[in-house]
Write a structure and sequence with these properties.
Layout lengths: L1 H102 L3 H15 L7 H56 L8 H10 L41 H12 L3 H19 L10 H24 L6 H23 L5 H20 L5 H32 L6 E2 L2 H10 L5 H5 L4 E2 L5 H20 L6 H28 L6 H16 L1 H12 L13 H28 L17 H16 L5 H24 L8 H19 L16 H12 L2 H7 L12 H18 L7 H25 L1
Helix pairs in contact: 1-2, 2-3, 3-4, 3-5, 3-7, 3-9, 5-6, 7-8, 7-9, 8-10, 9-10, 10-13, 10-14, 13-14, 13-16, 14-17, 15-17, 17-18, 17-19, 18-20, 19-20, 20-21, 23-24
Length: 762
């Protein structure tokens, strides 16, 4: 312990020694340390202040760093999201494109987009829910595309049904333009003309097609390849119908494996439309527009089908088109036969014929056989002829009714040339006569002649564009003209001739007129030859029957003159008022007979322009009828008694008639020829007035008998009337010998006459 304490003291002394040695240093150090403590405090304060400032200033940095940290995190997330979206965006874009295509009705591109979406893009992102929704919607979208495309097809079918009229009208206009062009440049070759027209007709349907359609849908056949060969096109109605719905729907159904369904549906609907188009309106025959609209719709229908045939592969085929055309042809011909039969206006029939020809030519350009239409036109030609005949019957009736039946007067050279220009007439003597002068015929001659020529022109108009030979046209015109002459004109003339109020002057003029018309028939022959270029000498050429027609009319007029004269004579004879019981002897002819003879003289004076034979026949007929009527008047049953004085008066009237016959009222009779008409009366009257029974009874039956023309029956009838008179008027005759002798003589003669009659009958 002591050593330890000693050691401790030693160490303490050393420590004290050392401390003493280093005390000043220690003091200095403490002093220094104190100084340092102050400086340290200052430094601490500075550090604290700096730290505070640093913390204050670094707070925004910390926040920014935190934000940076979050941003880095988001960036990583965004990058991952972008990577995923890069896989999804094409799907969404394709789906959006699909919707846009469906919205804009680009259904075939939409179907292609749907296939890409289903097979290429959706499998890459199939684990997303929206993709599963898309996958579930794909069948629905396909059905929607199918339904919408079918709806577009229905709209298209409705559209072409409405536009068939306009399409057909445009096609027929183009056919008319082509035909007019062919007529203008007949000398140029027509090679390729029909082909070019068909190309032009197709421009009706050319329209801008979707660039995304199958085969770019510009190469689907809508645009004709010939467009490259010739840029000149007849303006068409290319905006009328857009065919793209058909092509799109066809491609869509083809892609979906339902092409056959589509084809069957299309053909079925078009057959229904064909039946509607071929059903004519009930009033179609009333106007040409009715026929035109009907034809336009048919042409429009088949132009569309022809276009579909050439621009699609198998949607319609030639057999289907031919079947439709056969049905259309039969129904069209039946409808035209029915409705044209109602038509009574030849102008409408002619317009209808031109329309049918244009209809046939238009469809022939598209390859449809139209021979049956032209055959039917030959049937309509007969109907046209009938309507022409009816029309000309009215024309002839008006001409004949309005005619004054007097020669045409002309007062100047101009008027003369006008008439000669209308009717082929040459007369040197008439040309030499000074004005004013008259043609021998009346106005109906040039009018009828010109109307016959107009009828021939009308017949010629119908034969145009029927693809007939000149011989066929000539034959048709001649046959129709013969019908006009032998039936229509003949009936018109006969009706005029048979009119109740027709006068002798009119009948005479009709005979003169028909004579000149008969002479003009050769000019009508020449006229037909000139317009048909078929010589009359050609084999089987039909001859005109105009000569026969006018001869028949003239003969009818002659017969009517004879009948008319006889009726006039009968009217005068009705005025006869004989006193059959008179005992006075007259000294002049009866007044009625004097008037009758005056009438006959004036009448036969009008017959100077008639052919001599006609006038002579009329005069002879009138005299014979007068003689027969006088004989009947003398012998009629109502005259039961007559006296010799009445017979003497009757004899004066017969002498007046004989004097008229001797005067030669009509030149050309041989001497006493006309008097022979009264020979029966003359011999009968001479027999009774001269009471020459002995001669009559002695010479009866001999060829040179004086009373050869007296029939015993006639003589007996007249004698019986005189015998009755003798008995009644001579009641005291039995007391006078001469009267008794006369009565006895009458009885004797009567008995002998009865013997002659009985022997004649036996």
């Amino acid at each position: 312990m002591e050593k330890l304490e000693t050691r401790i003291r030693n160490h303490d002394r050393e420590i004290e020694k050392m401390c003493n040695f280093h005390y000043q240093g220690f003091v200095d150090s403490i002093t220094e340390l104190l100084k340092v403590r102050g400086e340290a405090q200052k430094l601490k304060n500075q550090v604290t202040d700096t730290n505070r400032k640093l913390q204050h200033e670094g707070k925004e940095l910390v926040i920014a760093m935190e934000e940076l940290k979050q941003c880095r995190l988001q960036q990583r997330n965004i990058s991952a999201t972008v990577d995923k979206l890069m896989l999804c965006l094409p799907v969404l874009e394709m789906y959006s494109k699909l919707r846009d295509q469906m919205k804009t009705k680009r259904h075939y591109p939409a179907l292609k987009t749907l296939e890409h979406l289903e097979h290429t893009y959706l499998p890459q992102v199939s684990h997303y829910r929206f993709c599963k929704v898309m996958v579930d919607n794909i069948p629905k979208l396909r059905e929607e595309i199918k339904d919408v495309s079918m709806s577009d097809l229905k709209d298209f079918l409705e559209s072409i049904r409405k536009h068939s009229d306009k399409i057909g009208e445009t096609a027929m206009k183009q056919a008319q333009q082509q035909r007019n062009l062919d007529n203008i440049i007949l000398q140029q070759p027509r090679i390729g003309s029909k082909r070019k027209f068909k190309k032009d007709a197709y421009t009706i349907f050319d329209t801008e097609i979707e660039s995304t359609s199958p085969k770019s849908e510009q190469d689907s056949g809508i645009l004709d390849v010939e467009d490259e060969e010739d840029d000149e096109e007849i303006p068409g109605a290319q905006d009328l119908v857009d065919f793209s719905p058909v092509y799109r729907c066809l491609h869509i159904y083809s892609v979906l494996g339902a092409r056959e369904t589509f084809e069957n549906y299309y053909r079925k609907q078009r057959r229904k439309q064909a039946r509607l188009v071929l059903q004519p309106p009930s009033n179609m025959h009333e106007t040409l527009d009715g026929y035109r609209k009907y034809f336009n719709q048919i042409v429009g229908f088949f132009v569309v089908e022809d276009h579909i045939l050439h621009t699609t592969q198998g949607l319609v085929n030639r057999a289907y088109i031919d079947e439709l055309w056969e049905m259309a042809l039969s129904k069209t011909i039946a409808a035209l036969r029915t409705h044209s039969s109602y038509c009574s206006d030849p102008n409408l029939v002619l317009d209808l014929k031109n329309l049918i020809v244009l209809f046939a030519d238009t469809l022939q350009v598209y390859g449809f056989p139209v021979n049956q239409l032209f055959d039917m036109l030959l049937e309509i030609r007969d109907q046209y002829s009938e309507t022409l005949l009816k029309k000309w019957a009215g024309i002839f009736r008006n001409i004949l009714d309005s005619d004054n039946y007097s020669p045409i007067p002309v007062t100047s050279e101009e008027m003369y040339k006008k008439v000669v220009g209308q009717f082929p007439f040459q007369d040197t003597e008439l040309e030499k006569q000074p004005f004013p002068k008259k043609f021998p015929f009346s106005e109906f001659v040039p009018k009828v002649y010109n109307q016959i020529k107009e009828f021939i022109y009308a017949c010629l108009k119908f034969s145009e564009d029927l693809h007939l030979s000149s011989t066929e046209v000539d034959d048709m015109i001649r046959k129709s003209t013969n019908l006009l002459l032998t039936r229509t004109l003949s009936n018109s003339l006969q009706n005029v001739i048979k009119r109740k109020n027709i006068g002798l002057t009119e009948l005479v003029q009709i005979i003169i007129n028909t004579t000149h018309l008969e002479k003009s028939c050769k000019y009508l022959e020449e006229f037909i030859t000139n317009i048909t270029n078929v010589l009359p000498e050609t084999v089987h050429t039909t001859k005109l029957y105009g000569t026969t027609t006018f001869k028949d009319a003239r003969h009818a007029a002659e017969e009517e003159i004879y009948t008319n004269l006889n009726q006039k004579i009968d009217q005068f004879l009705q005025l006869a008022d004989y006193d059959w019981m008179t005992g006075d002897l007259g000294n002049k002819a009866s007044d009625y007979l004097v008037d009758l003879i005056a009438f006959l003289r004036s009448t036969f004076a009008v017959f100077t322009h008639l052919p001599g034979k006609v006038a002579q026949t009329a005069c002879m007929s009138a005299c014979k009828h007068l003689a027969t009527s006088l004989m009947q008047l003398l012998l009629e049953a109502e005259v039961r008694q007559l006296t010799l004085g009445a017979l003497q008066q009757f004899n004066l009237d017969v002498r007046e008639c004989e004097q008229f016959a001797r005067s030669g009222p009509v030149p050309g009779f041989q001497e006493d020829t006309l008097q022979l008409a009264f020979i029966d009366l003359r011999q009968l009257l001479d027999l009774f007035i001269q009471w020459d029974w002995s001669t009559y009874l002695a010479d009866y039956g001999q060829p040179n008998c004086k009373y050869l023309r007296v029939n015993p029956v006639t003589a007996l009838t007249l004698l019986e009337k005189m015998k009755d008179t003798s008995r009644k008027n001579n009641m005291f005759a039995q007391f006078r010998k001469n009267e008794r002798d006369k009565q006895k003589l009458i009885d004797t003669v009567a008995k002998q006459l009865r013997g002659l009659v009985s022997s004649h009958h036996s």
